Amino acid sequence: MSMHLEHVLIDLLNQSSNGSPGTLWIVDENLAPEQLQAVHPRADLCALTNRFEVGEALAARGLQCTVSDFVFDALPAQQFSRIVYRVSKERAIVHHCINESFRRLIPGGTLHLLGHKDDGIKTNGKNAEQVFRTTARLKKHGTAYSVTLLKPTTENPQWLDSKDYLQLRECSVGEWSFISKPGVFGWNKIDHGSELLAQEARKYLQATSDAGAVLDLGCGYGYLLLVTAELPFSRRVATDNNAAAVLAANANFQQKNLPVTVSLDDCGAHLQERFDVILCNPPFHQGFSTSSALAEKFLLQIRKLLNTNGVALVVVNQFIPIERVAAEYFSNITTLCHSDGFKVVALS
Ligand SMILES: C[S@@+](CC[C@H](N)C(=O)[O-])C[C@H]1O[C@@H](n2cnc3c(N)ncnc32)[C@H](O)[C@@H]1O
């Protein structure tokens, strides 16, 4: 997030609502710690996020926060005079949040959308005008934009297509079907990297009669454990930081009668057990460098969660220098295969 965007956001959040119903902050997944430190907790300010670690950081700062898959009904208050939202990347989430914001604002209340040109902020503003039936106020702040919409006293919204955002649904790729929803990573697809990882896991464990306990770190809708269901794991655990992913994964494991313990967590930080196998398609395919905090965090957690004789099978984009970075945390690093722009690496 740029300095400009951060300033506008913080200014809006720190304005008191002077006795009227309060401010709701819809928090995007990329919450910078410095941004959080500048926000002053107040009784009339609450936040809604779909990411576990964002919720933890907000709560640690003393802010009232609800972690859910953007389920506005789960908020402690149902009416707001101001809603502040740095738009998300996924259109279905943005549309859902704009529709829901309109429902929760009092007449005369304001929705503030923030973002950069590349975030589609101007299009989001135009679309929001359709719901609010008013002209939005667009303002440039350096490299950032804010769009302000005033809720009219008479309502005639033309709802945006949110793809029925909250609903889980049946999806299929070829013969294979699964449950998923927008908001989950590659929600209606099979990721090539994950496909390759599952294939390598089968090869790697084929001669094993007891593969022990397995963890899918960053499970999305649960693909990896679903397609390796035939492997002789004695226990299966899956975790993700995204509330939408946890909902979809749980629904899939239940439907397929596969006993899996699923948790909403930050890189499995609250897991108390250790695993013999960790399967991971980490979220750092782009912008990864040896100093990437996210990469370091995943590798550190993998090392912590692995049994002494355990193995982690990790798939990454072929250009990611994972072998070099992982050398700091693991003594055995073997590249099992290269294919389709991906590589699978065994770490122990
Ligand atoms: C590349 S996707 C892989 C998803 C799934 N394993 C698959 O094969 O389809 C990476 C996943 O990591 C999750 N993730 C990102 N940051 C995380 C964190 N701090 N803790 C746990 N999961 C995280 C994302 O929500 C996403 O579901």
Q: And the CATH topology of the largest domain?
A: Rossmann fold
Structural class: alpha/beta
Largest sheet: 7 strands, mixed
Taking all Cα atoms into account, the compactness measure Rg is 22 Å
Strand content: 25-35%
CATH superfamily of the largest domain: Vaccinia Virus protein VP39
CATH architectural grouping of the largest domain: 3-Layer(aba) Sandwich
Number of DSSP strands? Answer: 16
State mean pLDDT (0 to 100 scale): 93
Folded structure, characterized:
The chain has 348 residues and is α/β, with parallel strands linked by helices. It folds into two domains: 3-150, Vaccinia Virus protein VP39 (Rossmann fold, 3-Layer(aba) Sandwich); 169-347, Vaccinia Virus protein VP39 (Rossmann fold, 3-Layer(aba) Sandwich). Helices cover 30% and strands 30% of the residues. It is built from ten helices and 16 strands. It has helices spanning 3-14, 33-38, 52-60, 91-104, 121-132, 192-205, 223-227, 243-255, 293-305, 322-326; strands at residues 23-26, 45-49, 64-67, 80-86, 105-116, 137-141, 144-150, 169-173, 176-180, 212-217, 233-240, 261-264, 275-280, 306-317, 333-339, 342-347. The protein has a seven-stranded mixed sheet with strand order 3-2-1-4-5-7-6, with helices on both faces. Strands 12-11-10-13-14-16-15 form a seven-stranded mixed sheet. Helix 4 (91-104) links the parallel strand 4 and strand 5 (105-116). Helix 4 (91-104) packs parallel to helix 5 (121-132). The longest helix is centred in the first third of the chain and has 14 residues, at 91-104. The protein is elongated. The structure holds S-adenosylmethionine (SAM).
